[in-house]
Specification:
This protein is of the alpha+beta class. It has a single domain (4-304), classed as 60s Ribosomal Protein L30, Chain: A (2-Layer Sandwich). It has helices spanning 13-18, 86-104, 128-145, 231-249; strands spanning 4-8, 22-27, 38-39, 43-44, 49-53, 58-62, 65-69, 73-81, 108-116, 122-123, 126-127, 152-157, 162-170, 175-177, 202-206, 210-217, 220-221, 224-225, 252-263, 281-285, 295-304. A hairpin with a 3-residue loop joins strand 15 and strand 16 (210-217). The chain is globular. 49% of the residues are buried. Bound molecules: 3-(2-carboxyethyl)benzoic acid (3EB). The site of 3-(2-carboxyethyl)benzoic acid has 11 residues, from strand 12 and strand 16.
Length: 305
C-alpha cells in the first residue's frame, strides 16, 4: 500500500479526510480549533498541515495515544505535559506509544518526531535535550532488549510547554541506515550528555516501494558540530550529510517526496539544490538540540527496491 505525505492548507483537510485514507494530520501553528490530529505550537510553516495518507484507515485511541492504521502502517500521536520535567514527559510519551503499538500489533517503530519547549534550557543542572534522552532511553529499554531497532527521528524545540510526539510504525521491522560521515548517535561519547540519543540516521522500509525516512540532519561530522555560528556553511554541510545518507540508503531511482527545514528564529534557508529542491517543502522556526546548531533538515525519499 502506498504511503503519501504532503503539506496542505487548512481548507483542503476536509476533502482529504473524506477520502478515508488519512493516517494523521499534524498542525504546526498550535491554534485551538484546528482540524489536526496533533497540534505542535511552532512558528513558521505558512499555515500548512502535514498530512500522511495510506490505505483504507481505521482510527482509535489507546490511553492518551491517538492512532490510525491501514493494516501496514500505523500513525500514532500523543501530547503530554512537561511537568514535573521533560525526562518524565519523554518516558510517559514513549511508554504509552509502545503500549499502543503493542495493542494494535504494529510493534516496529520506523519514524518518530518529538517537539518540546526549552530544548537548550537547563533543568536541574542538565540541558532539557539531555534529560529527554534519559527519559526516552528508560522507556525504550525493553524494546531494545528484544532486539527491535531504533527509529529514524527528529527532536526539535517548540513553543508552549507540552511534549509532542508522533510516529509511524509497522508490523514488520525496518532497516536502520547509518551515515558513514557521522558516528551513530547512539554511540555518541558522554560529551553530549549521560545518555546517547536513541535514533538511527535513516530507516528504510521495503513495501510497495522503498521508503527512506531521513532523520533530522545537521552539520555534524563524526560526533562534532561544525561551522558554529555560520548558517550558510551549516546548510551546505547538512546537504553533504543528506547526500551521504541518501547514498547509503541504496534506493534505485530515488525521488524526494518531502522535506522539512528547521531554522532558529531569524534564519531563512536558501533554495534547496536537487534532488531536494523539487520536493514539497515545509520551513519551521525552532531551536535545534545543540546550542551551536542553526539548521536541521529531514526528508522522506521514495524509490525502487
Ligand atoms: C544530531 O545529529 C542532531 O535525539 O532524536 C537529530 C535527529 C538530532 C534526532 C534525536 C537528535 C535527534 O545529533 C540532533
Amino acid at each position: 500500500m502506498p504511503l503519501l505525505v504532503g503539506y496542505y492548507p487548512k481548507d483542503t483537510l476536509e476533502s482529504l479526510r473524506a477520502g478515508g485514507d488519512v493516517l494523521g494530520v499534524v498542525g504546526f501553528g498550535g491554534g485551538a480549533q484546528t482540524a489536526a490530529t496533533l497540534d505542535v505550537p511552532m512558528a513558521g510553516g505558512d499555515g500548512l498541515y502535514e498530512v500522511w495518507r495510506g490505505g483504507r484507515t481505521s482510527a482509535g485511541r489507546v490511553g492518551r495515544v491517538s492512532y490510525a492504521e491501514d493494516g501496514e502502517w500505523l500513525f500514532a500521536s500523543v501530547a503530554v505535559t512537561t511537568q514535573p520535567g521533560v525526562e518524565e514527559a519523554a518516558f510517559a510519551a514513549y511508554t504509552e506509544l509502545l503500549a499502543a503499538l503493542a495493542a494494535r500489533g504494529y510493534p516496529h517503530l520506523i519514524r518518530v518526531w518529538q517537539y518540546f519547549s526549552g530544548i537548550n534550557d537547563e533543568e536541574e543542572n542538565l540541558e532539557r535535550y539531555r534529560r529527554f534522552n534519559r527519559g526516552r532511553h528508560a522507556a525504550l529499554k525493553g524494546y531494545l532488549a528484544r532486539g527491535l531497532r531504533r527509529p529514524a527521528a527528529t527532536a526539535i524545540g517548540c513553543a508552549g510547554d507540552g511534549f509532542y510526539l508522533y510516529a509511524l510504525a509497522r508490523r514488520q521491522a525496518g532497516m536502520p541506515i547509518e551515515n558513514p560521515r557521522q558516528v551513530p548517535a547512539f554511540r555518541y561519547p558522554p560529551d553530549y550528555g549521560p545518555q546517547p540519543p536513541d535514533f538511527t540516521r535513516a530507516m528504510r522500509v521495503n513495501g510497495d516501494k522503498a521508503y527512506l525516512f531521513i532523520s533530522g540532519t545537521a552539520a555534524i561530522i563524526g560526533h562534532e558540530s561544525h561551522h558554529a555560528g555560520n548558517a550558510a556553511a551549516q546548510f551546505d554541510e547538512t546537504l553533504r550529510n543528506l547526500e551521504a545518507i541518501l547514498a547509503a540508503g541504496g534506493l534505485t531511482a530515488p525521488r524526494v517526496a518531502a522535506v522539512k527545514v528547521y531554522m532558529r528564529p531569524g534564519g531563512r534557508p536558501p533554495p534547496l539544490p536537487q534532488p531536494w529542491g523539487d520536493a514539497p517543502l515545509l520551513v519551521l522556526t525552532s531551536a535545534i538540540c545543540r546550542a551551536e546548531l542553526l539548521i536541521e533538515i529531514e526528508a522522506l525519499v521514495v524509490g525502487g527496491i
